[in-house]
């Protein structure tokens, strides 16, 4: 069984389509979506519809979905907060049917295949406390590589070295049951395996808003568990014309209605990093 693991689409339909196309070319059997389908990019409703159209998928909610849920039934005449304009835009753009579908999804999921347990949640904090976000949040990553970008290989080496040496992480990781732990939220693509390969952590990064300073396309991860004795994890970066996509944002309704937020997102997309003032 081959899974395409995707997270943090954030309304970026062209990126989602590019990953689905790449996954199809790589003979994927099922998709796993780890949350955050809206906010930040102009196509929230289209992204939900695209996912709903897929035949074989597992999907959970992320933290961004709660922003939309909290707007249900509220007095829209009070929706004047500039910081929340992107949430208001998404709420108006998403059909009621698609919103109901999204909010019906669970916060976590547990799957089993070939006696291997897959645990799915939006944030790594569910499994390893703050071990990822303490030093590898998007803000920390942007500071770590502030003088330049970083290659995928160098990033992988850096985070593995950190996790190998971090006492808190090793204590928590040791206590985890064997299985595969899937999450997103940090917009940082990484994988970590135990020495015997029986315990794997997978963060596919952000499909729609990659912020790991790796200017090498948009990320997702393939998990192959066809052979339970030899699991294969492949971190992929799909080529994507970011400049062309940014032009579509600038011409979008979102750019007009949530201008400040859209400009920040454009800057982050262009630099593949969190903007730090």
Describe the protein.
The protein is α/β, with parallel strands linked by helices. The protein has a single domain (2-271), classed as Metallo-dependent phosphatases (Purple Acid Phosphatase, chain A, domain 2), CATH 3.60.21. The chain has helices at 13-25, 44-53, 64-69, 85-93, 96-103, 125-128, 133-136, 138-144, 152-165, 167-175, 242-250, 253-257, 259-271, and strands at residues 2-6, 30-33, 57-59, 108-113, 116-123, 179-184, 189-193, 199-204, 218-224, 232-238. A hairpin with a 5-residue loop joins strand 7 and strand 8 (199-204). The longest helix has 14 residues, at 152-165. It is globular, with a radius of gyration of 18 Å. The chain starts with a strand and ends in a 6-residue tail after the last helix. The model has no long low-confidence stretch (mean pLDDT 94).
Strand/helix succession: EHEHEHHHEEHHHHHEEEEEHHH
The side-by-side strand order for the widest beta sheet comes to 3-2-1-9-10
Main pleated sheet:
5 strands, mixed
Shape: globular
* Rg (C-alpha, Å): 18 Å
User: Strand share of the residues?
Assistant: 15-25%
Termini separation: 44 Å
**Can you give the mean pLDDT?**
94
Number of helices: 13
CATH topology term: Purple Acid Phosphatase, chain A, domain 2
**Named CATH architecture:** 4-Layer Sandwich
Q: Any idea how many domains?
A: 1
Q: Report the top-level CATH class.
A: Alpha Beta
The CATH homology group name: Metallo-dependent phosphatases
Class from secondary-structure proportions: alpha/beta
Residue share in helices?
Answer: 40-55%
* Low-pLDDT regions: none
Number of strands: 10
């Amino acid at each position: 069984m081959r899974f395409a693991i995707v997270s943090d689409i954030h309304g970026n339909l062209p990126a989602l389509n590019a990953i689905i196309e790449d996954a199809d070319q790589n003979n994927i059997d099922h998709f796993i979506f780890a949350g955050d389908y809206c906010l930040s990019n102009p196509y929230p409703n289209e992204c939900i519809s695209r996912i709903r159209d897929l035949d074989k998928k597992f999907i959970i909610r992320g933290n961004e979905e709660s922003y939309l849920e909290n707007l249900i039934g509220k007095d829209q005449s009070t929706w004047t907060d500039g910081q929340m304009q992107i949430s208001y835009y998404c709420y108006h753009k998403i059909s009621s049917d698609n919103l109901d579908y999204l909010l019906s999804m669970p916060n976590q999921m547990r799957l089993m295949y070939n006696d291997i347990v897959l645990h799915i949640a939006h944030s790594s904090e569910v499994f390893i406390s703050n071990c990822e976000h303490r030093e590898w949040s998007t803000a920390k990553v942007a500071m770590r590589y502030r003088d330049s970008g970083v290659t995928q290989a160098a990033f992988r080496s850096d985070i593995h070295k950190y996790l190998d040496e971090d006492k808190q992480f090793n204590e928590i990781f040791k206590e985890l049951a064997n299985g595969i732990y899937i999450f997103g939220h940090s917009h940082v693509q990484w994988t970590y395996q135990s020495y015997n390969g029986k315990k794997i952590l997978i963060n596919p990064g952000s499909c729609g808003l990659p912020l790991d300073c790796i200017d090498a396309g948009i990320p997702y991860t393939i998990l192959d568990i066809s052979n339970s004795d030899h699991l294969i994890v492949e971190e992929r970066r799909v080529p994507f014309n970011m400049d062309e996509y940014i032009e579509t944002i600038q011409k979008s309704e979102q750019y007009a209605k949530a201008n400040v937020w859209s400009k920040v997102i454009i800057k982050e997309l262009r630099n593949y990093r969190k903007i730090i003032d």
